[in-house]
Write a structure and sequence with these properties.
Blueprint lengths: L15 H8 L1 H16 L5 H24 L3 H45 L1
Length: 118
């Protein structure tokens, strides 16, 4: 009978920097989260601001539907005022989300730049 060929188990070969990156992925995330908390304080993250904006966009959509069906002049004016205020809130949340996203990106870049220096 033929002799069976026995193969050696393969062991992944990692460069030093690869194993370091794998071992510290959760540490990197913790560092990022900590830096974001420090940069933003109690302010919400960009994703949360976008969710709040999206909820207001949905509210605006519903008010616009109401505006199409309401015939009473006073009620229509009230809806228009509410829509104006809502639009301003949507604009502010969008701007805050953009600014916060910029801060989050700056923190990411700062962390990555520091890693490259080490």
């Amino acid at each position: 009978m033929g002799a069976k060929t026995r193969t050696q188990p393969t062991i992944p070969i990692m460069r030093h920097d690869q194993s370091h990156n794998q071992n510290t992925e959760s540490e990197d995330k913790d560092e990022f989260e900590s830096a974001i908390e420090e940069a933003l304080g109690e302010e919400p993250r960009a994703a949360e601001l976008r969710r709040m904006r999206d909820a207001l966009l949905e509210r605006r959509r519903l008010l616009l539907l109401d505006l199409k069906t309401v015939e009473d002049g006073a009620a229509r004016e009230k809806l228009k005022r509410e829509l104006t205020k809502l639009q301003e809130h949507i604009k502010v949340l969008s701007e805050e989300a953009d600014i916060t996203n910029f801060v989050e990106d700056a923190v990411r870049v700062g962390i990555e730049m520091r890693k490259l220096e080490n």
